[in-house]
Amino acid sequence: MTYLLLAEKPSAAKNFAKALGGMSGTFNGTPYKVQTLYGHMLEFVEPHEMVRGDDAKERFKQWTPETMPWDASELTWKKQPQVTIDAAGKKTSKAKAIADVAAAAKGATAIVIATDKDPSGEGQLIGWEVIQAIGWKGSVKRLYFIDESEKELQKGFKDIQDLPSYEQDGEYVKADVRSRWDYLSLQLTRLSTHAARTQGYRVVVRQGRLKSVMTKLVADQLALVKAYKKKPYYEVKYKDEKGNVFSRSFDEDRDRFRFETKADAEADAKKYGPSKVIQDSETRKETPPGKLLDLGGLASILGAQGFKPKEVLQTYQKMYEAKIVSYPRTEDKFISTEQFNEMLPLVNKIAAVVGADVKLLTHRTPRKTHVKDGGAHGANRPGTSIPASLDGLKSYGPSAVAIYETLAKNFLAMFGENYIYNSIKGHIEKHPEFTATISVPLSLGFKAIFDADKETADDDQGNDPLSTGLGQTAARFVFEGVNKKPAVPTHKWLEKQLSRYDVGTGATRVSTLSEVTTGKTALLTDTRGKLNLTTIGEIAAVMLDGSMIGDPGVTEKLYKAMKAAGQFSIKPEAVLQTATQLIKHDKEIFYRNALKLHSQVGAPEPIVEKEKAEGEYAPTGEKVSFSREWNGYLFSDQEVQRLLRGEVITIEGKNPTSGNPYRAEGKLAKGKYKGNTFWGFKRLEANSYTAQTAPFPLEWSGYKFSANDQARLRAGEKIKIKAISKSKTPYEVEVTFEVETFKGVASWKIKPHFKERPKTPTAKKKRKSRS
Question: What residues pair up with 423 in beta bridges, in sequence order?
C-alpha cells in the first residue's frame, strides 16, 4: 500500500514533509508521497460550454435577460484547469499542476485527500475535483487533522480513513452543491447590472447569497438612522445618595407619566416627595467567561481599531502557517479535551507575552462551556508556537499584534474565575412602583483579563450599572430622555445580525465583507469598523428591496438546505432548483426597482464619449476612426495626421491616475478588446528598442534623472537615487533601466532593487532559543 497525499498548498506540503520525514518515504510502516495542490485547481467552464446542441449553446452564450433563468438540468457542470492572472497580467494555468498529480498517482495504490477540513466541505471538494480530473479509479482515503503541527499530522496519518465514492461523500456533496448554486447565482449580477444600465447607470452591481444580505442589512439600518427624529421626553424618577436611579416600568399604550414638556413633568413631580429606600432582595450571582471568539468576532473587534477585514485575513493566515494561531476557518466555539490538555502547559507563557496577570489564571480545569469533544479544529485560539514578544509579530502584518493580543486574552479568560456580584433590588417606600436593580461587584474574575461580550458589543450598548449598594433615602427629580436612536451599522453590528441567522462561518463572513468593501465594484465602505454604502451599494440596495437574495431568512434556509444535501436528506437537484426559483423572482424585482433609481439614488453620471479622429490610414488605404486621447494625452491635429501617415510619434504626458509624467513612442495600429477589433495608438514594443534607444522616463518616484544618470543607466549600471514614497517619506534605493512586464505588456522601465528584509527565524530556532 503506497499513499499519495494531496496537501492543499505548498506550505502544507512542507509541514507534512517535516512531520513524516520527507516529501516521500515510509511512515508508520506505510510508503507515502506528498503532492502539493494549489487550492482550487479547477473551475467551471463558461455556461455555453457545458450544454449540448447548437441552439442551447447560442442561448447560454448570450447572457441576456430573455435567456435567464437558465435551466440547471441542461448543464453538464464541466470543469477545466483554473487560470489565474497575477498583478502583472500574466496568465497561469493549473493544468501542469494537475498533470503532476496524475504522474505522481501512477505509483500509488491509494490517493489520500489531506486538505483542510472546512465546515463548508471545501477541502473535500478541492481534493475530489483533482481526483476526478485525472480519471483516478482506485482507492480514495481521507487524512484529517486539527492543525498542521507535527504531532497532529502524524496522528492523522496513523488514522487515515476510507472514503466512499464522491457521490456518497457528504462533505463533497455539500461543497459541490454550494459551488453549483453560486455559479447559477452569477445570473443575479448580470441581471441587476443590466437592469441598472437600462436606467443609465454604467456600473457592475454584484449580487450573491451573502454579499447581498450584507448590503441589504446595512442599507436598511442606515435608512432607520436617517429617518430617526429625536423626540425628548420628561418623567419623574428618584435618585438616592449613592447615585442609584429608581424608575417606573413604562408601557407606551397604558402609562401616561412621560411628558413632552418639562413643565408638565415638573407639575407631576409635585406629587412625589423624599422617601426611604427599601431593599427587597440581595442575590449573589456568578457569570462565566464568554465564548471563545471565531474569526468574525475577532475581525469585528479589530475593525473598530482600524484594521480592514482583508488585512486581518491575510495576516491571520500567515500567523497560522507559522503555528502562532490556530486554524482560521473553524466554526467551533469550544476546544476539545485533548486541545485543552495540550494548551494548559502553555498558559503562563502566553500570559507573559500579552501581559496578563498569571495570579488571575486560577481556573485550570476544563469548563463545560468551553471544553467538549465533537468539534473539528476547535475554536480560534493561540497556537502552540509562542512568540517571544508581541513586537516579534509585526513582520506578519499590521494587525498581527492586535490579533494575537485579543485572541490570547480571550483564550486566557477561560482560565479566570467567574465574575461574582450581588444583584440587589429595591424600591421607594412611599411609591413602590419606582424600582432599581443594581450590580455590586465582589470579584471581577475573568473580566480583569478579557470580557468577550463587552468587546463584541456595539459601541452604544451599555452594561448593567455598577454600584456600591443602595442608599438610605431618595429624592425625586425630572429626568430628560429621548427615544432610542437606531444603532449605526458597524462591523460588530453586522456580525451580530449574521450570527443571529447562522449565515456562514466567521471566516466566510470576514472574507465576504473584505470582498464587498474593496475594489472598484465595492458595495460598502469600512471606516474603522463603521459601514456605509458606496454609490454602487446604494444602487444595489434599491434593487434588493423585496428580493429573495437580500433576505437573510432565505439565505439561512439555503445554508440549511446545503447541509441537508450533504446529509442526503434532500437531493442536490432540489437545492439547485431553489436558485432557479430565486432568480426568476428577483429578475422581476430588479427591473421593477430599477425604475426607482433616479428618485432614490439620483441621476447617473452622464457618459462622456471620447473625441474621435477619423481619416485614411495611408499605409493600407483603410478608413479608420480612433480615440484622440491615450493615457490622458490628447493628440494634436498635426500628430493625428502623422499617425494616419503611419509615422512613429513621441508623446509626453502625465498618467491620469498616478499623476506621474511619462514619455512614450508609438504609432497607429489595430488592436483587439474582448474579441472586437479597434484602431488606436499603440506603444512600440520593448523589443523595438535597445537600452540606448528606448524612451527614458522624465522622473521616477519624485526623482529627476540627470544626463549623467541617464547615460549610466542606459549603459546597464545600477545607481543609487533618493526617491519619495507615496507617504512623502524620502528613501534611498538602487535602480536599473531594463525591460519589465506588466499585465502582459513588456516595456523599458526604471526597476528598483530593494534590500531583502531579514528572514523571520523558523519556529524550530525559536524553540531552541527558549529552551
Answer: 283, 439
Q: Residue 671's pLDDT band (boundaries 50, 70, 90)?
A: confident
Roughly what angle, to the nearest 10 degrees, separates helices 122-133 and 170-184?
Answer: 90
Torsion of CA 347, 348, 352, 353, to 10 degrees: -30
> Do the beta carbons of residue 490 and residue 189 sit within 8 Å?
no
Cα 631 to Cα 115, 331, 682, 693, distances in angstroms:
45, 48, 11, 22
Residue found under cell 480513513: 161
- The pLDDT, as a whole number, for residue 766 is 39
SS3 87: coil
The string of DSSP codes covering 729-744 is -EEEEEEEEEEEEETT
- Burial status of residue 597 (CB atoms within 10 A of its CB: 0-12, 13-18, 19 or more): buried
What's the chain's length in residues?
771
498-507, 559-568, 581-590, 732-741 — which is least confidently predicted? Answer: 498-507
**Beta-strand pair 83-85/473-482:** unpaired
Could you report the per-residue pLDDT of 22-43, keeping only the tens digit for each?
999 999 999 999 999 999 999 9
- pLDDT the model gives residue 767: 39
Compute and round to an integer the Cα radius of gyration of the chain.
32
The C-alpha cell that represents 131 in the structure block: 481526483
Q: Give the other-Cβ count within 10 Å of 763's Cβ.
A: 17
Task: State the DSSP H helix or E strand holding residue 750, giving kind and residue range, or none if neither.
Answer: strand 745-753
* Closest to 346 (Cα-Cα) out of 392, 444, 414, 289: 414
Please state which of the ranges 77-86, 284-293, 621-630 shows the lowest mean pLDDT: 77-86
Letter for the amino acid at 750? I
Is residue 750 within 8 Å of residue 714, measured between CB atoms? no
Half-sphere exposure for 484 (CA within 13 Å, toward CB): 6
pLDDT band at 86; cut points 50, 70, 90? low
The answer to whether the CB of 583 falls within 8 A of the CB of 191 is yes
Torsion sign over Cα 585, 587, 588, 593:
positive
What gap in Å lies between CA 91 and CA 396, rounded to an integer?
28
- How many whole angstroms separate alpha carbon 186 and alpha carbon 212? 12
Q: Nearest 5°: phi and psi at 582?
A: -65, -45
Return the HEC string of 168-189.
HCHHHHHHHHHHHHHHHCHHHH
Counting residues of the chain whose pLDDT is more than 70, the rounded percentage is 96
CA dist 466 and 421 (Å) reads 10
Bond from prior residue into 69 cis (ω within 30 degrees of 0): yes
The enclosing H or E element of 479 equals strand 473-482
Q: Show the cell assigned to 231.
A: 423626540
Whole-number Å distance between alpha carbons of 480 and 103:
78
Residue type, 196: A
CB 517 within 8 A of CB 308: yes
Residues 711-768: pLDDT tens digits?
A: 999 999 999 999 888 778 889 999 999 998 876 778 888 999 987 755 544 444 433 3
d(CA 545, CA 557) in angstroms, rounded, equals: 19
Strand pairing of 676-683 and 699-700? unpaired
